[in-house]
Amino acid sequence: xxxxxxxxxxxxxxxxxxxxxxxxxxxxxxxxxxxxxxxxxxxxxxxxxxxxxxxxxxxxxxxxxxxxxxxxxxxxxxxxxxxxxxxxxxxxxxxxxxxxxxxxxxxxxxxxxxxxxxxxxxxxxxxxxxxxxxxxxxxxxxxxxxxxxxxxxxxxxxxxxxxxxxxxxxxxxxxxxxxxxxxxxxxxxxxxxxxxxxxxxxxxxxxxxxxxxxxxxxxxxxxxxxxxxxxx
Length: 232
Description:
The chain is mainly α. It has nine helices and no strands. It has helices spanning 2-9, 13-26, 34-59, 74-99, 105-123, 128-138, 141-152, 160-190, 196-224.
């Protein structure tokens, strides 16, 4: 019974894997490097997950700041299972890239915290904080991936104005969501009755977000003062 329930949590995993393999094959048209093909496919899958995740978490919009201690309900469970499958999938991609010499410790910590947090939320039947956190974290992901794809595929120089708008839009949305709403959620989560594993994972994701936001603010400042281009 427990095995069956655990498998329910990752039932979207085959779908992510199939999409990834198809996209890696398609990426051969743009690069002959396997690691680059994997990264291209990963970014597209990431963007698709982000859109679907925000829709699913929006369907569980009754989750609010006031009911972080509320028991998991069906819409929340559906959203968390979908994203849990994705984070498990993406963690495997992290391992593959590390084996190819492209390890990224910050991403590894981020995904480990996501797997722990969402997994703990499912295990302890607490969904409000996780659904709110996923929506806040993923709302800026499509713009991030679009920016990365434009830069990687050589479109940033060709469409400079569009690339600049995408970059600034992503930075603004990321900082507003993760540093504004994310900080409020992290504060309220610590004061809730959620399990410590959920609180630690939420704090870990927020801490990584602080590091990224600091880097972005510095880059934007250099861009505005003429020190560096946002294309870098």
